[in-house]
Amino acid sequence: MYLNLRISLILIIVSVFSFAQTDNTATERNFFYDASSQKSMAVTLSHQILNTTGNNFLGQAYNGDGGYNFSFKLFLYKNLFIRYSGGRSSFDITNTELVGNYTKSRLGERFFSLGYEFVPLNKVKIGINASIYGTFALENTIENGEQRDTGNLRSYGLSLQYEVIRNLSIYSAFDFRQLKTNIEAPESLTSFFRKGDYNTFNIGICYAVGDKDVLSAVGILK
């Protein structure tokens, strides 16, 4: 399921990229590209709300509390971008019988993603993105210290932003994320602890600078 979703998102991004290359009308704005709103890079800082889901250790024993996310986005060609995201959030433990005597957990996320931004309206951008590589660290607090789990992270998301003043936008996003863990468990519980699913909702600000993408700026593409 997740492989198919990733392939679909990548195909959409590649198709949009191909369309953008054939659109040489710099002054014309359409759903796929607006030359007047082109940026070089952007930084986003947002508050993050988590909601755990599914029949897995996160969905059954963890309750999302909140946290923050920071991202840096570089526009490669027109609205096609690569992004680094990092954040920290916390969970309350709701079922210690399932996962152990933890009192609280902190999640650290780090991942790279590819995406594209559409321009449906003036000052409005809608983005799609899919992670290409990500890791996480889950620090579980126990009475006498901490226990740490690590593994890989997947993320697929949608974003919406509105430019309130030049270069500064209100930013919101919804992502589906999955942790693939290295937790050692009895064979009967392996599937329960192998992954953890959760959704995130983010709201914050985005500050963007520049007016040329990377490949256009260095003269490789125009």
TrEMBL record:
<keyword id="KW-0732">Signal</keyword>
<protein>
    <recommendedName>
        <fullName>Outer membrane protein beta-barrel domain-containing protein</fullName>
    </recommendedName>
</protein>
<feature type="signal peptide">
    <location>
        <begin position="1"/>
        <end position="20"/>
    </location>
</feature>
